Amino acid sequence: LILLFNKTTLALILGSGAQKSQAQLRSISAKHLTCTAQSLGLVLAILPHIRAALLTQLPPNRSMQLTELDRVNQVILEHHSQILTKFVIILGDSIDYSAPKLNCVNWDNFNSITESSLNKRTTVDYFEDVNKNVTALHRVLLLDAMLPVDQVQDIFSRIFSLLLRKLPSHFEDILPNTVTGKQRILDELTHLTSSFSLLKSIDSSNEMNQLEEVFKRKYSD
Q: What does the alpha-carbon distance between residue 214 and residue 181 come to, in Å, rounded to a whole number?
């Protein structure tokens, strides 16, 4: 029964089967992933009690049942880990999707960007997208769905490590000609990292300090 539950859940959520089922979900959202993580967490919490009960009831020649139960526990753990990793992948994809907005920005004459056509997005949009996506995921995981704090911290530790890799790569070919342009980038980044420091129960200081240092080395004269 436990293996059937795990197999069906895996197919519906990570396998996107729920989009083709009677539920006809348009997409697999963070809330669906959170519900799945909670369900798997419940099973993982119950399994040790099942094992303890079987240990007192099974005859010695059926001890392999306990070994099988241990294997099932490992399968559920791996599935749960995949769910947590999926949150990081979703966030990373959203940041990559916003990266092309940087191509339309003239950092050296930034004020004129606000008067450009609606088809051109500014770099403020890029940083706002990153901030919005991170804070929205934080709200879903910690405030709305109430995942255990240690799991949320694990997810966001990986997310901030991801930002530490991705943001410098998005700015790899961006080099303003003026001190004002370079400072504007540093100001935008500082505003972003400051907003992350306000997230409840999350510590971003280590990765964000490193990120600021990377940008300072590139854009400070």
A: 17
User: How do residues 34-81 score in pLDDT, each as one tens digit?
Assistant: 999 999 999 999 999 999 998 888 887 877 888 899 999 999 999 999
Round to whole Å and give the CA distance between 150 and 161.
17
In tens, the pLDDT along 166-181 reads: 999 999 999 999 999 9
Q: Collect contacts of 126-131 with beta carbons under 8 A, ≥24 apart.
A: 126/98, 126/99, 126/101, 126/102, 126/170, 127/188, 127/189, 127/191, 127/192, 129/94, 129/95, 129/98, 129/101, 130/95, 130/98, 130/163, 130/167, 130/192, 131/192, 131/195, 131/196
User: pTM for this one?
Assistant: 0.82
Structure tokens at 14: 């990570």
CA distance 152 to 49: 25
